[in-house]
UniProtKB/TrEMBL annotation:
Keywords: Isomerase. Belongs to the PhzF family. This is PhzF family phenazine biosynthesis protein. The lineage of its organism: Bacteria, Bacillati, Actinomycetota, Actinomycetes, Kitasatosporales. It comes from the Bacteria. InterPro entries: Phenazine_PhzF-like. The keyword Isomerase applies. It comes from Streptomyces luomodiensis.
Length: 274
């Protein structure tokens, strides 16, 4: 069985967010325990597992995502990585539909290799729990400008900080963030230089699901896109996730859907023996 490691939301190896991708030739998923063990062995933010569906199905492939610790309901970079593998192996062209825990998601593969994901837009609710906001501020070591909770397919806190420098410099207390119980904590700020090729920056911490810091998070941009589009008055933006690996995500808000566009590079192509 082939397994590939793909760097997503980047055009060069060893940047962006690496994901494991396993394309199954069966018509069903193996046992959950096996899927979780493989993901733990790969030990990346997510490993994607996909198998083809019959022609009459509502989608082309069934797709699931696992962190080293648990299954998640929505993952952008591993979906992009899966679409990239389907394209580079000749298994798919044009638009591919995936049946997932978050409904049917599509990935449109461009002639230039860029891939656009069609994901549900997150709903944002301003945090009404000052105690929680104070706890997060202490854990981050930074003052919070505004705080929102996002759902339903993600369970994240969205926190705007003072500026890009503050986001880049964070060294949070991950144990304290884990105790909050949310899938992830997204921190963000407007770009310091509007001419720098991106509109906002972000980082994503998800210790509750086994990921201390996710390098480039597609699903977080379904939260970031509506937030910053409302602030800037534009539906199309570019986000830079400023982890150590960094990666660019182009976003386009389309009502209750968010389009996420990026590139990907395969860095490892091997055989899964167990």
């Amino acid at each position: 069985m082939r397994i590939r490691i793909v760097d997503a939301f980047t055009e060069r190896p060893f940047a962006g967010n690496p994901a494991g991708v396993v394309l199954l030739d069966t018509d069903a998923f193996p046992d959950d325990d096996w899927l979780q063990r493989v993901a733990a062995e790969v030990n990346l933010a997510e490993t994607a597992f996909a198998h083809p569906l019959p022609q009459a199905a509502e989608a082309d492939w069934a797709l699931r995502w696992f962190t080293p610790a648990t299954e998640v309901a929505l993952c952008g970079h591993a979906t992009l990585a899966t679409a990239h593998v389907l394209r580079t192996t000749g298994a798919a062209t044009g638009t591919v539909r995936f049946a997932t825990l978050s409904g049917v998601l599509s990935a449109t593969i461009g002639d230039d290799g860029a891939i656009t994901l069609d994901f549900p837009t997150a709903a944002l609710t301003e945090s009404a729990v000052p105690r929680k906001t104070a706890e997060v501020a202490t854990a981050l070591g930074a003052e919070i400008v505004s705080a929102y909770e996002a759902g339903p397919y993600v369970d994240d806190l969205l926190l705007e900080l003072a500026d890009e420098k503050t986001v880049r410099a964070l060294t949070p207390d991950l144990a304290a963030l884990k105790r909050l119980g949310h899938r992830g904590v997204i921190v963000t700020a407007a770009a310091e230089d509007p001419a720098g090729g991106y509109d906002f920056v972000s980082r994503m911490f998800a210790p509750a699901v086994g990921i201390d810091e996710d390098p480039v998070t597609g699903s977080a941009h379904t939260v970031l896109a509506p937030y910053w589009s409302a602030r800037f008055g534009r539906d199309e933006l570019t986000g830079l996730q400023v982890s150590a690996r960094t990666g660019l995500v182009r976003t386009a808000l389309r009502g209750d859907r968010t389009l996420l566009t990026g590139s990907a590079v395969t860095v490892i192509d091997g055989e899964l023996l167990a």
